[in-house]
Q: What sequence folds into this?
């Protein structure tokens, strides 16, 4: 299982890459594997400010629909629009081209409470 050490993780199986005050968010390799073939990514919160743990969108797979949760509080400043026509990229490249949103963090200290790669590996039983 690929769990990049340079990322942070949530208990909801999302990864977070932080550069300055921008957090890029996607779902982990474990999550996309559990969901199966991704058929739709819905993000209607672009431009909105949301609190940590609020739902910012949903991801639909052949067998289920799952909510996506904000890993940190902030404004959703960008949605990866290519996912509208190519949601399967989440399956093929979850840590690269499968990213979903960019968030301008309102409280960067919240990132300190996210899991590191070792803690996430333990969470998923790796």
A:
């Amino acid at each position: 299982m690929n769990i990049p050490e340079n990322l942070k993780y949530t208990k909801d199986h999302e990864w977070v890459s932080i550069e300055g005050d921008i957090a890029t968010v996607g779902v982990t390799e474990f999550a996309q594997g559990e969901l199966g073939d991704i058929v739709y990514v819905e993000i209607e919160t672009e431009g909105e400010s949301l609190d940590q743990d609020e739902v910012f969108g949903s991801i639909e797979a052949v067998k289920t629909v799952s909510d996506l949760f904000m890993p940190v509080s902030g404004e959703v400043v960008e949605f990866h629009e290519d996912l509208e026509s190519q949601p399967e990229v989440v399956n093929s490249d979850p840590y690269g081209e499968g990213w979903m949103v960019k968030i301008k963090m309102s409280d960067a200290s919240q990132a300190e409470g996210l899991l590191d790669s070792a803690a996430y590996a333990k969470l998923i039983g790796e």
Remarks:
- The mean pLDDT is 97.
- The first helix runs from residue 29 to 35.
- Residues 13 and 28 are 6 Å apart (CA to CA).
